[in-house]
Amino acid sequence: MMTSGQARTTLLERLPQVRGRYVANVELAGLTWFRVGGRADVVFHPADADDLAGFLKACPTDVPRLVLGVGSNLLVRDGGVRGVVIRLGRAFASVEVDGEVVEAGAAALDVNLARVCRDAGLVGFEFMRGIPGTVGGGLRMNAGAYDREFKDILLWAEAVDALGELHRASVAELDLSYRHCGAPADWIFTSALFRGRVGDPAEITARMQSVGQARRESQPVNTRTGGSTFKNPADARAWELIDQAGCRGLQRGGAMVSEQHCNFLINTGSATAADLEALGEEVRRRVHEATGVMLEWEIHRLGEHAAGLAEVRV
What we know:
The chain is α+β, with helices and mostly antiparallel strands. The chain is built from 7 helices and 19 strands. Mean pLDDT is 92; it is low at 1-8 and 308-314.
């Protein structure tokens, strides 16, 4: 078993050769919507799906690996992330329309997918205008908005597992439900195929504009936030429970519960990841005390707390 000292002094030397590129000691705060978080030991940008598969096959099994999208539904802790962060780039961002089916790479932004389908006159993707993430992230959590979810239009998705093996799974095999995907946790989604239906581009545009307007009116879209913080419990809305518990506008350090939509946490400018996570936990405590419901985080939290931060040499 490799010691932490060995991991931090020889990590790049232990990683396999790739056609993409490695970048060491990357500040992750600039890659997340909250604009907080520590460093990643190494960020890997694969050249394509085969390069990603080759990396996963050859990477030592004791090296931690995780995937980072556009950081819209993510809280990276202040101590940073050990091991390798995989970031899919332009090679995974294509969107191709063929009749009523659309193939999209995992790094394609949901809003861009919606726009391409609008221009092609395909109905069914308008809800993605309200999701600030990527196709890969949407697959992993069955993202949704305005009463529609990924599973409603998905045909299949492709992924690479931790051993570099390729998989294609149908929507039924992925076992998608509210904010849940049944795919193995080690799968990294690389692409997906969706089906829409032909419609009037003008009507599609109007629906997308309506979604965008509703989002601007109800959510703090121009702030440093991570989107919806907690999942809606069965037969309840998280924001209503948070409001009922008196948490609207609650602050901790530079973190605040949005007064516009109290299921959103905001970095007011000086927050640390610890501030945001502690505020979220305080909200959970107060909601449970007031209503008996323990909210479940929707935002993904990863990495080490600040006490685990040390100089990283790679």
